[in-house]
Amino acid sequence: MADFYELLKVPANATFEEIKCSYKQLILQCHPDKLQQLDDPNPRAETQNSDFNAINTAWNTLKDPIKRKHYDAEMLQSKFQTHSNIYAHVELSEMQRVQVEIEGEGEADESPESESADKGSETMWSYAYDCRCGGQYLFDGPGDDDDDSPATISVSAPSSSHSTSAQSSEVIVECSECSLVIIVKQTAKHK
After folding, report:
1. CA-CA distance, 160 to 162, in Å (whole number)?
2. pLDDT digits (tens, 9 = 90+) for 96-112
3. Per residue in 73-89, is it b (16+ CB within 10 Å) or e — as a string?
């Protein structure tokens, strides 16, 4: 898959306006009507025409926020599939389960008696796995659907053959210290 950001000569975190400006400059440089000369046929016309089409394809993808988000996800997924930085394939049950208390927002003038009631705290589960570098792979486990962390990417996998009510998925989790990743296989049961 072509790197659309590279084609448009912008960084991956470029704004819409930066992408648009670069697109306009590039399209003027390789537009077939601008390059065509009546008395001297251009031997590079076919190459420039393919550049023109590639730039248009990149622009049509990156100008639409939804298409851009899908493209970015595909590029990130392919990056992890093609690189050899996968440390391990791990079942969720192999990870250490850690209970995390999240304190809710309280009022500044609360008395010490009301703090002991723990009315504003929530409990959630996280999972940890040790990396060979000494860092950890941290993953907020299943049921925490509101986690949009850039360190995890859900990848759908086929359902397990022994259960029709379970859906198996894989999540890529980055190490907190190095560039290695693990692929966590989890099974979410539908009720």
Report:
1. 6
2. 988 877 776 554 444 44
3. eeeeeeeeeeeeeebee
